[in-house]
Amino acid sequence: MAKKIRDKDTTAINYNETGRECVQVKNEDTDWMVYHLLAQENRIALEALTQKAGLDRDSVADSLDRLDRAFLIERDGTTIRALSVGESMLRCQAKYDNTLPYVFENGVVKAKKN
Q1: Cα 63 to Cα 12, 56, 68, 101, 109, distances in angstroms
Q2: Cα 14 to chain center, whole Å?
Q3: By its UniProt entry, which InterPro entries does this protein fall under (predicted)?
Q4: Domain that holds residue 100
Q5: How many domains are contained in the chain?
Q6: What is the DSSP string of 48-82?
Q7: Cα(75)–Cα(53) distance, rounded to whole angstroms?
Q8: 8-42 per-position pLDDT tens digit
Q9: Same domain for 53 and 29
Q10: Do 59 and 79 have their domain in common?
């Protein structure tokens, strides 16, 4: 099984079973690939996404954390999906604009409590 060694949280270096370096990938490249795999699916489980990506679970989980912080994906506990552009914009605005009368809670738009 391939293993990953991090280099200053900017690069994932994967080694094959023989211990030889096989690929060096920047996190942005991993995120791009994972996002596009998600965009091809309606919803997908982490295990299935990991298998499709051909990466180890930690690399995919780290990528999902970055994509989540960027308002590009939604996780419901068991599956992951890519957000539409409109959903991404609304979530970003809801997080940073305190004057909005709504919030997002578990994927549902709700009136903000005063």
Answers
A1: 11, 11, 9, 31, 26
A2: 19
A3: WH_DNA-bd_sf
A4: 85-114
A5: 2
A6: HHHHHHTS-HHHHHHHHHHHHHTT-EEE-SSEEEE
A7: 17
A8: 455 555 555 565 555 566 888 899 999 999 999 99
A9: yes
A10: yes
